[in-house]
Amino acid sequence: MDIYNVIHNRRSIRKYKPDPIPKEKIIKILEAARVAPSWANKQCWRFVLVEEETRKEKLAAALPEGNPATRAILQAPLVVVLCADPRASGRVNGKEYYLLDAGLAMQQLVLAAWAEGLGTCWVAWTDEDGIRKACNIPGEYRVVALTPVGIPAKEPKPIPRKNLSEIAFKEMWGNSFTA
Ligand SMILES: Cc1cc2nc3c(=O)[nH]c(=O)nc-3n(C[C@H](O)[C@H](O)[C@H](O)COP(=O)(O)O)c2cc1C
């Protein structure tokens, strides 16, 4: 699938079919994450793959009430938990680059999944300790986010984005870049 097609058509998926994901596809999407860029190539990320129902229930229980992705965590055949070690990345002027490293790897997984016909949904509004306990994640790693992975149950509708003129400036802040 063309990369622009993947980028433009990807949506967050919160309803899944129960069909299991073939191992080859799981490896493909993990490989896409594995080759992501990172601070000094430190690759501070780690992924925990959860398929057991009881563990998915623990993950779902660690989402605050009202998180719209809760049902998706239970429905999807696979949940990927994204962790990162802040000590294995940079910190400049209070900016923690482990979040960027981990986010880049996860987004590569997300896009690769879409190219494979699989939906995902970034889920970062969680009780970190609950996720940590469910998967025995060591204390030096932060839980950054998780995502369900599975075949979308229905075709998602496009949702709006800001126009380029609102987000891109020419030379000086405030001078709208127009296409
Ligand atoms: C860092 C991050 C955290 C997010 N956390 C959640 C979450 O906890 N629960 C949820 O349902 N969606 C979550 N989302 C998904 C966003 O709501 C979604 O990406 C946004 O509404 C745009 O929709 P789209 O992904 O379909 O384009 C998160 C997205 C990002 C990038």
Walk me through what this model shows.
The chain is of the alpha+beta class. The protein has one domain: NADH Oxidase (3-Layer(aba) Sandwich). It has helices spanning 3-9, 23-34, 53-61, 70-75, 97-115, 128-135, 164-167, and strands at 45-50, 78-84, 91-92, 95-96, 119-120, 142-150. It is globular, with a radius of gyration of 17 Å. The model has no long low-confidence stretch (mean pLDDT 97). Bound molecules: flavin mononucleotide. Residues 11-12, 67-69, 121-125, 159 line the site of flavin mononucleotide.
Secondary structure class reads alpha+beta
CATH architecture: 3-Layer(aba) Sandwich
- What small molecules does the structure contain? flavin mononucleotide
Low-confidence stretches: none
Cα distance spanning the termini: 26 Å
Oligomer state of the chains in this structure: single chain
Instruction: Walk across the major sheet and give the strand order.
Output: 1-2-6-5
Element string (H = helix, E = strand): HHEHHEEEHEHEH
CATH superfamily heading: NADH Oxidase
- Total helices: the number is 7
State the share of residues found in helices, binned by percent.
25-40%
What is the CATH topology assignment? NADH Oxidase
Q: Would you count the extended β strands for me?
A: 6
CATH class, please? Answer: Alpha Beta
Mean pLDDT, all residues: 97
Beta-strand share of residues: 15-25%
